[in-house]
Amino acid sequence: MSDTQINGQLAFAASSEVMIDVNKMNKWYGSFHVLKDIDLVVHKGERFVICGPSGSGKSTLIRCINALEDHQEGDIIVDGIKLGKNLKNLDHIRTEVGMVFQNFNLFPHLTILENLTLGPIWVRKMPKAEAIETAMMYLERVKIPEQADKYPGQMSGGQQQRVAIARFLCMNPKIMLFDEPTSALDPEMIKEVLDVMVELAETGMTMVVVTHEMGFAKTIADEVIFMDEGDIVERNKPTVFFDHPEHERTQKFLSQIL
Length: 258
Ligand code: ADP
Ligand code: MG
What we know:
42% of the residues lie in helices and 24% in strands. It has helices at 3-16, 58-65, 87-96, 112-122, 128-141, 157-169, 187-202, 214-220, 238-243, 248-257, and strands at residues 18-29, 32-43, 47-51, 73-78, 81-82, 97-100, 175-179, 206-210, 223-228, 231-236.
């Protein structure tokens, strides 16, 4: 696909304002039906929180949206591009969609500054001086500019996760996906990472966040989705979702975590 075509699709996405469109999507691992008839539309600037029991398919769903996993039925359109086998499309998705995992996934042998400048220099073709300036700006934003020359192993989990978030912000992504970003952290570090995510939400970033931090969901989510056994069982605005969950499975889940 040529750049012009990519630009054409970007223009389309911007005008329609739909950033993620998952339509009747089904996925199997062998004979195991892991995602069942998933429909999900996320508009520019919307924040969705996904919760549900372990094994319900939350990670698989957001990995499909980031094209880290393929799917067998239905469509996934991200930033105007239909996910499929076209490798150039995949490059585009990986550039425009940031994904923060439970375990930070920083490069351990690179300093924090090197971790943050690698993508902008090599993928975005940004001049090195500008990449460093951008990296420092985002390290300020996540409140650890003094850690720029350290290695990931010299930092706390909360700091590493803030670096992981800053690393994607340096790429100026259109969408940020988070897969249980605080579940590997000690309790006292959870808030510092959630604070960064709330600030990010306030900038208007389009976000899909898998988390069981329900206070966070109440603060930022436009919609909360409950998944169980590969189904979207229930979805609603946080006030309705938490105060009046409709389905028995949702009620049971919420009674266990709240
Ligand atoms: P969640 O993130 O909600 O805990 P996952 O998306 O990780 O759930 O997993 C959903 C289901 O798919 C689980 O039953 C899990 O064991 C299964 N699964 C996940 N990854 C694979 C894989 N690569 N191959 C086979 N089964 C998998
Ligand atoms: Mg998971």
